[in-house]
């Protein structure tokens, strides 16, 4: 290669490197919505409807529009994770970033785009507010009566706006809109960006930009007429302006005044048996939050790891101790805000069944804070059995191979506990007309109460991670097993139990020995000084004859000369039991090496 070829190659590489360096930040890439124009997408080097990034200088980007054979300059500013704003020039024939970008006028339109879908952010103000509003730029008359309201929701990124119509003001209306905050930033003034949705048409968002200012319990807020941030001059000047006043008396949004029990805080994250709710307890033990886990849709934002998103279902604030006379059962007056943005007082009962099993009772809404709590308060309320979030499978409390009959059908079968796995149960059922099924369950934890042994189990393939209780009780005819999702809690009524069996005693023990036939290469063991015959011993470590509260590995153990156990569990063929000895491997490697050397010598 001569010097001219080197120069051409070097120039080409420099050109390629320069072009490839014009890329958009990773955090900008994805789908965005622009009011009036609809969606656009940003990739590493392209913006749909705009073109391909050609050159970059700070926040200035020279975009090549191949369809029109011209270049435009875009000055892009990131305001928040969910918001980008930009100004752009017209499209020109020159490709100088300096000359094209200087064509942008100072009064050029500021465009705002919002990420879709967006991860919501906490709103800059919280609680309950009353407000008056004006929807006209030609008059400062505010609609003051009847009073409009902003209701706080359980999720701190949401509000419910309740607009009221004022007589004689045609630009006012009666309307209820849900609002979610998507971004906040400061650029001289404080900005808020979010979306309104109508309860009856939640899939059609209306994006709006706000400028706001709060002082004490009062505030001013102006709002745009569309999804741009154009037309906002100050918090009190805009197309729509609002004057807000917070609930000073604390009657609707009170301050917590007591603490929940320590046994509730010992584990900061709980879940209910249905797998739908996660309960998070604050450090101060004055507030806990109930999050609703629902399966994601294609456009859903994943708020946390996994295939689920969490929406705040309820925020519970401790207001007063009602009954603390029982160590493991406490009652409280609580202030509750739910996901419908309704706030009020409710009775709350916490019962400690075991360190890892709690009962949570929440009454229906009371008429006032001073209404007395009683057992009847909880009749139509919510009831949850709570277990620690993230609980993993653990050893089942016993093992055995039981035969059973189904008390609700004509089916029979075998109920195996701790046999195939020390943490698992297997139900093999046979029914008339040759119908058969096999069900697997993992043991999570167990406890005893009033002569009944409760084992909390979970189906391993259930994506919702629902858990349930199996209640084992000794009877004259055998062991009665019934599925009870509430683990025998107060007001527990078992309906349509999926499992209601009678297990027959005595049980068969789980298989204790598994025969293993060694390969010929494993039978011969020269220089074996361990005193055995060269035939490997394989057996399963099992529980003692009583089969209770003993751990076993469930693995086939082979003793070789250096006494290291070899895992042959679950029928897995691994490097140790694949039927090929280390000597065979060495021989194969030697033969392959000879063949390769011979081929090289022939060349």
TrEMBL record:
Residues 547-567 have a biased composition (Basic and acidic residues). Coiled coil: none annotated. Residues 255-380 form the DUF7043 domain. Residues 120-245 form the DUF7042 domain. Keywords: Signal. It comes from the Eukaryota. This is Uncharacterized protein. It comes from Mizuhopecten yessoensis.
């Amino acid at each position: 290669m001569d010097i001219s070829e080197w120069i051409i190659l070097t120039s080409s590489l420099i050109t390629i490197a320069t072009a490839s360096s014009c890329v958009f930040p990773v955090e900008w890439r994805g789908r965005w919505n622009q009011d009036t124009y609809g969606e656009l997408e940003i990739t590493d080097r392209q913006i749909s409807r705009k073109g391909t990034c050609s050159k970059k200088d700070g926040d200035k980007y020279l975009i090549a529009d191949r369809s029109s054979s011209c270049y435009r300059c875009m000055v892009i500013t990131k305001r928040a994770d969910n918001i980008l704003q930009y100004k752009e020039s017209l499209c020109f024939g020159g490709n100088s970033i300096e000359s094209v970008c200087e064509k942008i006028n100072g009064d050029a339109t500021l465009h705002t785009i919002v990420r879709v879908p967006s991860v919501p952010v906490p709103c800059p103000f919280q609680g309950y507010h009353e407000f008056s509003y004006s929807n006209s730029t030609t008059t400062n008359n505010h609609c003051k009566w009847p009073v409009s309201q902003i209701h706080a929701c359980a999720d701190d990124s949401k509000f419910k706006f309740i607009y009221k119509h004022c007589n004689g003001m045609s630009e006012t209306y009666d309307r209820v809109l849900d609002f979610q905050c998507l971004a906040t930033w400061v650029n001289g003034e404080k900005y808020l960006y979010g979306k309104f949705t109508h309860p009856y048409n939640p899939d059609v968002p209306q994006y709006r930009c706000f400028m706001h200012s709060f002082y004490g319990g009062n505030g001013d807020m102006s709002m745009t007429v569309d999804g741009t941030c154009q037309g906002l001059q100050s918090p009190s000047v805009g197309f729509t302006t609002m004057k807000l006043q917070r609930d000073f008396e604390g009657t609707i949004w009170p301050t917590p005044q007591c603490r929940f029990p320590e046994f509730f805080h010992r584990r900061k994250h709980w879940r209910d048996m249905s797998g739908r709710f996660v309960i998070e307890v604050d450090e101060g033990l004055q507030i806990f939050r109930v999050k609703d886990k629902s399966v994601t849709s294609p456009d859903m934002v994943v708020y946390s790891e996994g295939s689920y998103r969490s929406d705040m279902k309820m925020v519970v604030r401790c207001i007063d101790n009602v009954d603390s006379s029982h160590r493991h059962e406490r009652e409280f007056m609580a202030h509750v805000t739910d996901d419908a943005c309704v706030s009020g007082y409710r009775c709350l009962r916490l019962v400690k069944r075991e360190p890892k099993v709690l009962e949570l009772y929440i009454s229906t809404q009371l008429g006032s804070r001073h209404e007395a709590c009683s057992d009847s308060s909880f009749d139509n309320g919510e009831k949850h059995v709570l277990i620690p979030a993230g609980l993993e499978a653990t050893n089942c409390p016993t093992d055995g191979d039981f035969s059973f009959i189904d008390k609700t059908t004509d089916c029979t079968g075998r109920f195996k506990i701790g046999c195939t796995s020390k943490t698992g149960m297997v139900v093999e059922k046979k029914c008339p007309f040759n119908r058969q099924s096999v069900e697997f369950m993992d043991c999570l934890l167990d406890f005893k109460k009033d002569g009944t042994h409760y084992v909390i189990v979970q189906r391993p393939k259930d994506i919702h991670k629902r858990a349930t209780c199996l209640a084992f009780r000794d009877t004259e005819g055998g062991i009665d097993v019934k599925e009870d999702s509430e683990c025998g809690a107060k007001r527990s009524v078992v309906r349509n139990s999926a499992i209601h069996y009678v297990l027959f005693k005595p049980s068969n023990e789980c298989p204790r020995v598994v025969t293993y036939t060694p390969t010929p290469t494993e039978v011969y063991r020269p220089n074996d000084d361990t005193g055995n015959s060269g035939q490997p011993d394989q057996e399963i470590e099992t529980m003692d004859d009583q089969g209770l509260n003993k751990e076993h590995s469930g693995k086939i153990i082979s003793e070789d000369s250096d006494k290291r156990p070899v895992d042959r569990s679950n029928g897995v063929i691994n490097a140790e039991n694949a039927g090929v000895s280390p000597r065979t491997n060495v021989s194969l490697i030697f033969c392959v090496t000879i063949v390769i050397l011979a081929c090289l010598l022939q060349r």
